[in-house]
Design goal:
Helices cover 19% and strands 25% of the residues. The chain is α+β, with helices and mostly antiparallel strands and 292 residues long. The longest helix has 12 residues.
């Protein structure tokens, strides 16, 4: 272990090293003797000195499997390979820790029966995702061939993703680009951060659409798809998404933050022809904008 981790709690250290597991799961492993510090079982709250040997014997995770549920869907586009859904804010894309029902995937299975299997039983058809509280267009693969073709387009950054965002404060420049690397916040694990020198490469471009007294309305394009990317990047330049309290935005009486996946452009897996799909701004965001 690096000496710079001296003074850290054991459970905090493990969560930074193993972000794919929840803190509660890691604490269960520590209490169950699956985590040893210099060969000894310790409490989750023990403070590390730095330089210890920490070993982890993970327990098998219970398998997740999506199940069909009769949940309404707003279909924007559909062909033999691809479905484009207008996801409302608040709808989780797929099952995860503590959430097994009421997901977009479950709704898709009810309406379409079978989808691609590349991402496993818990995420059939899912090629990419957007945050739970972000609304907008999401692509779904109907078969494995289409899934792999779309995944390759995402990997090579051929897919063009454009968002609409309202941020706090007035941005003076008409355009801008943010290239800060993104990694998980070592203190608040539910957050990401762009304030460390290391992390995953991320690119965000923005264009001002309209300025208000205390807000700026933006069109945002991302060349990468990191967790919370737009929210982290805009917060890092002092302009958090309006209503996004996780990243420094003020709490506002609208029940969500103002970020919408407006348009996506890609090549059809079957024909290679360009496809562009747009999701209209939801009524609650349109009303919010009009109120300014």
């Amino acid at each position: 272990m690096d000496p710079q981790n001296a003074g850290r709690r054991l459970d905090q250290f493990l969560q930074e090293q193993l972000p794919q597991y929840s803190r509660s799961r890691l604490q269960d492993w520590i209490k169950g003797g699956r985590v040893l510090v210099d060969g000894k079982q310790e409490k989750p709250s023990i403070q590390l000195r730095g330089g210890e040997s920490v070993s982890v014997d993970p327990a098998e995770l219970p398998a997740l499997k999506a199940t069909a549920e009769d949940i309404p869907l707003d279909i924007l586009y559909m062909d033999a390979d691809v479905i484009a859904v207008n996801k409302p804010a608040g709808l989780v894309v797929h099952a995860g820790a503590g959430r097994h029902t009421g997901t977009l995937v479950n709704a898709l299975l009810h309406h379409f029966g079978t989808l691609s299997t590349v991402s496993g039983d818990d995420r059939p058809g899912i090629v990419h995702r957007i945050d739970r509280e972000t609304s907008g267009v999401l692509l779904v693969a109907r078969n494995d061939t289409a899934h792999r073709a779309l995944a390759e387009q995402f990997s090579s950054r051929e897919v063009e993703k454009t968002y609409l965002a309202l941020v706090q404060g007035v941005i003076p420049r008409d355009t801008g680009r943010i290239d800060s690397k993104i990694t998980r916040d070592p203190v608040r694990r539910i957050r990401m951060t762009a304030k460390r020198e290391f992390g995953r490469t991320a690119h965000t471009e923005y264009k001002v659409l309209q300025r208000f007294e205390k807000f700026t309305y933006l069109e945002v394009r991302i060349g990468t798809g990191r967790t919370h990317q737009i929210r982290v990047h805009l917060s890092s330049i002092g302009h958090p998404i309006a209503g996004d309290t996780l990243y420094g935005g003020k709490a506002l009486p609208y029940g969500r933050f103002f970020l919408h996946a407006w348009r996506i452009r890609f090549r059809s897996p079957s024909t290679g022809e360009p496809v562009s799909i747009e999701a209209p701004l939801p009524p609650e965001l349109a009303d919010w904008l009009a109120s300014l």
